[in-house]
Amino acid sequence: MPRKKKTTKEASDTLIIKRYGNRRLYNTETGSYVNYQDLVKLIRDGHDIQVIDSTTKADVTKSVLMQIILEEEKSDKNLLPTTFLYQVLRSREEAAQDFFKHYLAASFAAYMKTKEEFDRRFRSLLDMGSSAPNLLEKFIPGAETVKELFGISHKEETPPEATTPNEKEKTTRRKK
User: H/E/C letters for each residue in 133-171?
Assistant: First the structure.
């Protein structure tokens, strides 16, 4: 599946980073040197980058991104399992290369979209539960813990109404 070409507006959204012979990286937009952690932050903030070698003018974006992944691995953020890396290195077939070029990226994009949708729906369920806390407890045991994890505060809960005739009668007698 061929990639969609970027329009002029989309291409201008790409940050140009120059890589010098001493491997220093220079952000041409801010006019300052950056390190790999800075690039990770830019990418996670949604920016695309293009890294250009300052002497050859070659696009070295892919090798810099691979180096960023290696740096992430060094700091115990295991992004790629070892078995997967062996499989990548052992596969020399065109079909495998095609898979990595097209389908792996599409699959990951689909995963991220699904994850965002799940998070959105789960948060709305928790929000609904905070407006009716007793209802949420009936459907999700331990919902109070989940609400605390997501930082959703709840209104003061009132004790549930008595539901059986005997309980209603006992409650009425106590009030008198």
Answer: HHHHHHHCCCHHHHHHHCCCCCCCCCCCCCCCHHHHHHH
